[in-house]
Amino acid sequence: MPIDAVLTRIDDQLPDALDRLMALLRIPSISTDPAYKADCQSAADWLVADLQSIGIDAEKRETPGHPMVVGHVEGDGPHLLFYGHYDVQPVDPLDLWKTEPFAPEIQDTDQGRVIRGRGASDDKGQLMTFVEACRAYRDVNGSLPCRITFFFEGEEESGSPSLVPFLKDNAKELSADIALVCDTSMVSPGVPSIASQLRGMLKDEFTLHGPKIDLHSGHYGGPGLNPLKEIARIIASFHDENGRVAVEGFYDGVEEVPDELLRQWENCGFDEETYLKSVGYTQPHGERGYSTLVQQWARPTLEINGLWGGYQGAGSKTVIPAEAHCKLTCRLVGDMDPDHVRKALRQHVEDRLPPDASVTWDNNLDGSPASVMNIDRPEFEQARQALSEEWNREAVFSGMGGSIPVTRFFKDILGLDSMLIGFAQDDDAIHSPNEKYNVESFHKGIRSWARVLDKLAKA
Amino acid sequence: MPIDAVLTRIDDQLPDALDRLMALLRIPSISTDPAYKADCQSAADWLVADLQSIGIDAEKRETPGHPMVVGHVEGDGPHLLFYGHYDVQPVDPLDLWKTEPFAPEIQDTDQGRVIRGRGASDDKGQLMTFVEACRAYRDVNGSLPCRITFFFEGEEESGSPSLVPFLKDNAKELSADIALVCDTSMVSPGVPSIASQLRGMLKDEFTLHGPKIDLHSGHYGGPGLNPLKEIARIIASFHDENGRVAVEGFYDGVEEVPDELLRQWENCGFDEETYLKSVGYTQPHGERGYSTLVQQWARPTLEINGLWGGYQGAGSKTVIPAEAHCKLTCRLVGDMDPDHVRKALRQHVEDRLPPDASVTWDNNLDGSPASVMNIDRPEFEQARQALSEEWNREAVFSGMGGSIPVTRFFKDILGLDSMLIGFAQDDDAIHSPNEKYNVESFHKGIRSWARVLDKLAKA
């Protein structure tokens, strides 16, 4: 069985694979900060060279922002498009890092053996699991098992401004049978997971305007309308006492999770207590009557992400400010329509404005509906079997609380379904100081992709 | 009648008096900013020299902060202590100024002829009304009408850290029969006012703590406790639907305004509509059932002065922050006890904390009860008559929404009652860009003090 030889090759070559990942992690490809523009180019160059080293016809493709990397290899059987991103989040607050973010280390820790450094998990380590699987497969078999297009972007952490134009301009070149994405987590350590439903998101921001100018609370304290008080009252009205969103029409398009899926989730190994305890909670909050997992994967939310107004410095200032500000995001599920939710939300706020107050909205913030993957496609069952064999544990179709916008663009622009398989863990501290990726995630991730490729190619 | 000669002298010398004020206004004596330390010294030096020029035994007295100016002149009759402050507020936002803040100008405007510049009203212009009255009185009569101690501080706009120790250390030297303070406004243009009751103040600040770290709303949005939502809910609970403070025990010590005083206030010329309209209000807000003036002068408040947490930058960030912050002040009236109010307020917040949340308080913020002046003293009636004669309009005993902490220290440390007479107008933009003082306030303010001095000395 050739797959066993590939897996052995992966085991033998792990030190070299880690070395390659470390080299990529040393490149500070922070996409949101213009100071790292040249480093984003270097990361793209590194990937082009690495793909070329395993016989892939790869090149860097410039965009108005950071470049894309596109590679092709011919082959029989299904045509796969593999997506990952080589850019990383900023590293601040730097003083909370225990190592240099771009001087990656292998460390033995309580969480196991880990690769420590910015991008180790999100997404360089994950991206390389697929590349290393391809390398080993080719080393053993002389070629890859099927036709594959590699597609890496460098702007995922900064809103992907070039992605949609690039997909549109290169739709033919990037067409395939199905997209594979490695940018997600396992439900819990050791439980292989295919993310099959992702929440959508609506972003909005408003400013509540009261008096024409900042006022002195000695003069206007009492008769004056205070925007901070009013914005608090409005925000407090967003939820009822059971944690349910109290905006009329908000839940249109939301359905309860089917019993069968609910049973799967209940048995997927998710450790609610640990998950909550790790951030200081003794119990789930939010919508009463729903478990943590169901809330996270299958219930919509309205979260305040930013709130400010008045004086924030040291000491006291007797000001009634002219304005108060609120940033919020809604996570969307099922058939919730972002435009409908936005309208309902804005109406809710406007209905609650007191006299002499007005509201303005930021109209530059977008929204996208939830994504539900097409798990009836045979590739999902093939991948599920491959993962179950590697991890010796039934793989699960999981939900995801966040969104992976690229899957929507693949669907809308390329007509491609996506299959989301990732090996990150919830404690990887992505976007935070001391990001890590377990060596086991990397090693078994490579092995997993080898198995998945094999299954998909042979189907 | 010598007072007529003094008033004529004041009229004749107005251009010179304005020149002197302009010289003082050119000194950027911003007390809160260490960069202006030398300028605070210069302002004190200027005042010492100016007092000396009218025969007053004045000197600069160093403190750990900015210096005090103390001057004495002997005389018969009552012993008056006159207080003012030579320091000013910072000038930011500088781009909203239409002139240089420290290059004062006389301008003809819709509001009349005004002196424009930082400190023109608060408090250099007001302070100089008294000094110029003394100068004219001496020019005409060869000496001042009674014994006067001059006392100017340079830290009023930065919390007066040196004031209490200085008063304690120099209590004997600063003792007098009554204190005169010129740092207040007229109820409305042309209506001379003696502020006879001032609200007290309680400052507090709290931080509401939720998760141990900032969370990603894709992961914890739903089951996660959001401190921004919770702080909004708590702030919303501070008031009931009638604008009344809903903190248990808050109103202990509050009494309704006596009918007679209420009638005086109703006829004091206060133009509610203009007062509200000038800042963009079409109606009074706050506590239902109370007029703007009564709310401002005689009702307690709980105002949010600062509120913040989460992301405030451009665009969106899907964060559930670990903390949310709130700064607040309460205005106190009657016999309200700051310590009691603080305790009630903190209890109110703590009673409303959800599970897994905690609160911490800033324990460095002070409080002081309301001040009610002793208007039965004969000096109040003498001053009221003098003011009524100058302005040709019955002077009123007004309330004040803000506090003048020095009056409390005079009472507690020196045993001195204070009489607060000022000529500022509500539209003077004190603490704001484009501060001004009407030339009429300055001119008739000087004339007013000459008349008041004359009445008090002759009584």
Automatic annotation (TrEMBL), chains A, B:
Pfam families: M20_dimer, Peptidase_M20. GO terms for biological process: proteolysis. Its EC number is 3.5.1.18. It is an enzyme of class 3 (hydrolase). Coiled coil: none annotated. Residues 206-356 form the Peptidase M20 dimerisation domain. Keywords: Hydrolase, Metal-binding, Protease. One of its GO terms (molecular function) is metal ion binding. This is Succinyl-diaminopimelate desuccinylase. It comes from Roseovarius indicus. The gene is dapE_2.
